[in-house]
Amino acid sequence: MTKENNSLNTIKKVSLISLLINFVVAIIKIILGVMGQSQAIIADGIHSFSDMISDVVLLFSAQFFSKPADDSFQHGYHKIEVIVIFIIGFLLFLVGFGTAYHAVLNLISREIVIPEKIAAIAAVISIICKEALYRYTIIEAKKIKSTALVANAWHHRSDALSSIPSFLGVLISSYFPDYYYIDSFAALIVSGFIIHVSWELVNPCLDNILDRSAPKDLIDKIYKTVLETQGVLGSHKLRTRYLGPATLSIDLHIQVDGNLSVDKGHNICGEAKAKILNKFEEIIDVIIHLEPEHD
Fold first, then answer.
1. CA–CA gap between residue 78 and residue 50 (Å, rounded)
2. Which of 25, 67, 170, 174 could serve as 120's disulfide partner, Cβ 3.0–4.6 Å?
3. What distance in Å separates the CA atoms of residue 97 and residue 196, rounded to the nearest whole number?
4. pLDDT, position 118
5. Taking the CB of residue 120, how many other CB atoms lie within 10 A of it?
6. Paired residues of 235 in beta bridges
7. pTM given for the model
8. What CA–CA distance (Å, rounded) separates 288 from 216?
């Protein structure tokens, strides 16, 4: 089995398991949220449904961004993974904004709705299930180095974390009816978690789409690696471009003795390229321009 097929199968397996668990958890939270009259738990349930959407998007898009480069897309299909992560982040933002909007409306209306303790059970189930799902997904994501799967894992953790204020909001409001509005404040806190996670996902995607350069420390390490190649006397004009969330293409100039033959200079370029590709897993394409030292 090729590396691409193994990654695709892992993403499909994890996404299907995630889809099933998210569906069950979302149904439980919404049913118990309605029964317990908890706005925070119902909002949390909607958040879980957004997780299902991201699972479906990831499931169907994985077969495309896992494909190797071809004549039509010579740099590969890695950008599709960036688009998928952006969609997941944007969906999270919409959920967070909607949750905050309804919580604020409820606070303004001053409608007294005291949640019942049964709603807290949904929060406990969510925290346990979603944290377990996060840990499982992140382990599988690291095995295949899938940034999209990592993004989805953090989507799960945001759901687990957002269930904590929901749980506390239900308990406080049910035991202390005078503080009925705590449930709405809990919903606002949930929305804050969701929006923060959405920005953490979307921001790197914008950098990727705009072709932001690799970090300076990585560029310095690449220069150092190139200069360690026998025959390389200097290097400059290094440019980096992210092809996907965690894959880089670079081009640079190296300087060699101007009296060397073209064949010898070409061999030095080959050695420098091999050093870079062997040392930096994220770099998948290297273009080197050869110059005599006096240029």
1. 24
2. 170
3. 11
4. 81
5. 23
6. 254
7. 0.68
8. 19
Distance of CA 113 to the CA centre of its chain: 37
Sorted by sequence, the CB contacts under 8 Å of residue 114 that are 6+ apart come out as: 37, 173, 174, 177, 180
- Tokens representing 159 are 């759901």
More confident residue, 222 or 103: 222
Question: Would you call 159 helix, strand, or coil by DSSP?
Answer: helix
Query: Which domains does the chain possess?
Result: 3-209 (1.20.1510.10), 216-292 (3.30.70.1350)
pLDDT at 179: 73
How far is it, in rounded angstroms, from Cα 65 to Cα 206? 18
> To 5 degrees, how large is the angle CA 252–CA 255–CA 260?
130
Per-residue model confidence as pLDDT tens digits over 67-102? 777 777 777 777 877 887 788 788 878 878 877 887
Tokens of 149: 């799967």
The two structure tokens encoding residue 178? 């005078």
Identity of residue 31: I
Beta bridge partners of 290: 254
In sequence order, the 6+-apart residues with CB closer than 8 A to the CB of 231 are: 256, 257, 260, 264, 268, 271
